Amino acid sequence: MAQIKGPALFLAQFMGDKKPFNTLENITAWAKSLGFLGVQLPAWDGRCIDLDKAATSKAYCDDLKARCNGLAITDLSTHLQGQLVAVHPAYDTMFDGFAAPAVRGNVKARTKWAVEELKKALKASANLGLSAMPTFSGALLWPFVYPWPQRPAGIVAEGFKELAARWKPILEVADKCGVACAYEIHPGEDLHDGVTFEQFLKATKNHRCVAINYDPSHFVLQCLDYVGFITEYAPHIKAFHVKDAEFRMSAKSGAYGGYQDWKGRPGRFRSLGDGTVDFKQVFTKMTEIGYASWAVLEWECCIKDGSQGAKEGAAFISQMLIETPTKAFDDFAGGKADTKTNRRILGLQ
């Protein structure tokens, strides 16, 4: 069997009001028909999960698993709730829609709500028998990522200090639940590359529940070494989004995209196999570091329809899974040896 589990599907981009996307039972039956073995649930979507019940009732969680047509629940995604832990005022209005209606327009209430939702999701993850919770970090510093005028001295350290303080009570619950917070390294978040992940890790005093949700597509758009990243941060990678992307050199715009829509940007997300991510190397390196959790398709493509992307993606991931060898390829040429033989071969006696 392959060491990495899969294929699995992140349901967030597929949930809708029409069959087969309107209920957990219907969408998991559809996913199963495409060849998926697991699903990642968006923890903000009531059609997939009642977070209040899941946080307090293992019986509810057992029933939830039974409703998935034999597919495993791989993780609970809390990207939207995580985003709201830290929001720079420039984004308040745009991010308000991620929150419950009762706390919109009230920053303090919204932040408190997000923190409590994340705590619930961690408890729900534990009740489901999961070990990692993919999420976003939120961002206080993103408007200053490429600043003019220059950033004031100390503002970055202050931003990470505050971000760590906001996550501290969540990480304490994570520790009690035995569930890692797997932050997706993502532009728009304060944790958007390896260096910023390290800054946050340091600010949390190397908290053992600070982990990574690895997604190579976001590194392609930032021109980062996405395979080398796996080696650098191997101990922290606890979740894996399989998403493709491409960066097409342009004479008119670059990494920032010129305020264009996704089709017009030099860097854009694609369906699996249609972009430039070298997934053979990615899966090789993930296998090499001992990653043994799920490979979860996150479909985002501005060219191809999601239904086609999901169908092709299930087969694509299946083909990438590596069955680790049970013996070395050159074992047949080996022979028994002892110290006397080895010394004779070396010409020492």
Cα shape: globular
Question: Which residues form runs of ≥5 with pLDDT under 50?
Answer: none
Extended strand count: 10
Radius of gyration: 22 Å
Return the CATH architecture. Answer: Alpha-Beta Barrel
CATH topology: TIM Barrel
Domains (count): 1
Number of helices: 13
Strand order of the largest sheet: 3-2-1-10-7-6-5-4
Question: Could you state the CATH homologous superfamily?
Answer: Divalent-metal-dependent TIM barrel enzymes
Distance N terminus to C terminus?
46 Å
Q: Give the CATH class.
A: Alpha Beta
Biggest sheet overview: 8 strands, parallel
Secondary structural class: alpha/beta
> What is the overall pLDDT average?
96
Overview of this protein structure:
The chain has an eight-stranded parallel β-sheet with strand order 3-2-1-10-7-6-5-4. The chain has a two-stranded antiparallel ribbon with strand order 8-9. The chain is built from 13 helices and ten strands. The protein is of the alpha/beta class and 349 residues long. Helix 6 (107-127) packs parallel to helix 7, helix 7 crosses helix 8 and helix 10 runs parallel beside helix 11. It has a single domain, classed as Divalent-metal-dependent TIM barrel enzymes (TIM Barrel), CATH 3.20.20.150. The mean pLDDT is 96.
Write the layout of secondary structure elements.
Layout lengths: L4 E6 L13 H11 L3 E5 L8 H6 L1 H9 L5 E6 L1 H5 L8 H4 L11 H21 L4 E4 L19 H23 L2 E5 L9 H10 L6 E5 L2 H4 L5 H7 L4 E6 L1 E4 L19 E4 L8 H10 L5 E4 L8 H15 L18 H7 L4
Parallel strand pairs: 1-2, 1-10, 2-3, 4-5, 5-6, 6-7, 7-10
Antiparallel strand pairs: 8-9
